[in-house]
Fold each of these.
Amino acid sequence: MVWERRWHPLREEWVTVTSHRNSRPWSGSEISQVVTEQPAFDPDCYLCPGNTRVSGIANDSYKDVFVFDNDHPSFSLKAPTGLEASPGFYSSAPATGITRVVCYTPAHNLSLAELEESAIQNLFDCWARQTEELTSRPEIDHVFVFENKGEIIGVSNPHPHCQIYATSFVLKATETEVNAIRKYHEEHEKSLFREIINNELNDGRRVIVENEDALAFVPYFARFPYETYVVPKKTHQFIFELSGTERMALVQALKTVLVKFDNLWQMSFPYVLTLHQAPCDGAQYPQYHFHIQIHPPLRQPGLQKFLAGAELGGDTYLNDACPEETALELQAQPDVHYKEAG
């Protein structure tokens, strides 16, 4: 598929599919796939159990999921509120919020893809508890959970963990989705996300995993090669609203996707994983559909998908791979992690 534009309904923008460019000559640097075996416990790791973090605070000797307030927060409830008015037409506002770190497991050498389903379920339960607690706070308008995985993403600590940003404002991606979903419902009296799910199921070519209560697919409008959505089939605004059965279905779908990622190139696959939840700013968002987005940065083994002129300068995404083709690659991968398969 070449030179085709596809409409991204959640972002209300066009994505150009240029899959013929994925095989273009490349003389730049490549991402090394040399794997350094990590120990189960690293005495120099700030996130391992019992170790002292840079703040001087010692971690609990945790056996499961461990949560703590970020020692270097991007947002804080202590943000100054008495800001001087900016001159002219410029504006400023406090960067108020709560940021937390969630360690998935005490094992330094495991990734999310390698955890048992029960451990991932514990993590989902933690995400749900954290979201429910933070959304109940009047000073918080949005809770955003994300994992940055891999050195290519800029992660300096390989210990499996994610972050939670609970902010006094709504992050731009969610704000864009909310507006698109509201607009679509006003114009068509239909749920935009339900339309996406139904169309992916009816087409079927991009579906990676389906079970009774969850679905994983490479979206028709993917901006990145191997971009994948993992969604509950029923509409919920927040992760804590999912039933135990729905949560487990989502766990199984997510694990299968992550295992397939690793199996594709026999490596620990880097990505940015994000939980998209409705704002908690007092307004109602009945059409918003909680979901997980995964954005991998590689377009081929060792080759990064760079955001350059069109993306950063022109704010228009070029996908170097056809979503149907990348979905087919992932579908063909086994469900058992290559390390377990030997």
Note: The first strand starts at residue 4 and ends at 8.
Amino acid sequence: MIALLIISGVVLLVLFYGVAIYNKLIKLRNTVKSSWSDIDVQLKKRYDLVPNLVETVKGYASHEKTTFENVTKARNMAMNASSPADKAKAENMLTSTLKSLFALAEAYPDLKANTNFLQLQSQLKELEDNIEYARRYYNAVVRDFNITIESFPSNIIAGTFNFKQEEFFELESPEVERKPVKVSFS
């Protein structure tokens, strides 16, 4: 009788522990989705700001058609990317073209003094900071989720219920970001 109680107690303990692990995995997965949504919101604000920025610069540098086309193309690619890896690649391209746009603005002193341009530039800087914070949080949550999926004994529960690892949202490496921006006045 005592052996049966002990065995029942152990089985219940293992069952409760399995439920606790499952609930933790669900919580982490939902936190990953929520934090990705936060990044998406910041990126959408950025995408909405880019056309205003391009139009402002166009008024001063209308002959720089290729730069404007590249920014617009990069923005569209970023908006249509779906996975974190695709989104990161597209964001790197958009960031690069925006750097070219700001480098172009350096050649036009009237544009650099334009209140609207300065305000848009400030808004973009703030959005870039918010995107960085959201990206760091997302990557931290993904790290915790992936560690939980790979760790024993939660990997048994994760495998049983088909939990899959999430992708990190990684931008270009620091070596790539340190390269100077190419500016062409063609």
Note: The radius of gyration is 24 Å.
Amino acid sequence: MLSKFTRAIRRHWQLYLFLLLPAVYIGIFAYYPMTGVQLAFKKFDYNLGIWGSPWVGFEQFRKFFSNYMFERVMTNTIRISVLGTIAGFPVPIIFALCLNCVFHLRYKRTVQTITYMPHFISTVVMVGILKQFFHPRVGVYGIFYTMFTGATAGDLFASPSAFDPLYIFSGIWQGFGWGSILYLAALSGVSPELHEAAMIDGATRFQRVHYVDIPAIMPTIIITLIMSIGSLLGVGFEKIFLMQTDMNMRVSEVISTYVYKRGLGSGGNSDYAFSTAVGLFNNVVNLILLITVNKIASMVSETSLW
């Protein structure tokens, strides 16, 4: 076996040379930083460093589970993620199915271009747009509210009840066009003969979508759903952090923002070991969810990640 591998290297040494640089890059920037995970099981001391700090076992995890913030950040993270999945997951699928029914090529490409564009807006700019649009005085929302009611609109970014709709629906608007690319690609592989046969049998357009298009993209739907549920606790950090205010902190503090604040706290209150433990807990739960959902998918269908 070794001699075969050696001969393959000698015969195709140029290809292996091309692989060397990305392999070194992945090793340095992806695998070597994993050694820092040991901080989750240590009491970090700046003077001793990561390797010299004393081991404390699962003390950091016990500290997190007994912390008063545990229930809040877990509840907020799960709520935002579940609501975002329920509200946002079907939208790219429905949009792709609708766009696939359009036969006017120029109109179709125009719609695709317009719906893809919000994906390329940076998170900072996106939150800035939201704050300008929903400004209670000079924003579109504030102007129309005053026009119809005669009163000044309330600040939605200071309202805890408005945080979830603002975060979720702005995310849907920004991502549904780009998310439909996978489904449009799957729909492009549907044989026209299936549609022709369905039309001969008298199937309506809706019936063709139901019995031809949806089964064709079902494997893609299952894979994306598995990956979506597998990152249930991985709610994005940047957008939530930028949308947070003192008034909505009660409903907007999630695991990612909590880890950031504990790990890089101001005033010398940084707790690297504790934040590492919380981040590790988050990743382990996501891994368990991914394996579980993938197993369920393989049992109820023929599609799974592995």
Note: Residues 39-300 form a domain with the MetI-like fold fold (CATH 1.10.3720.10).
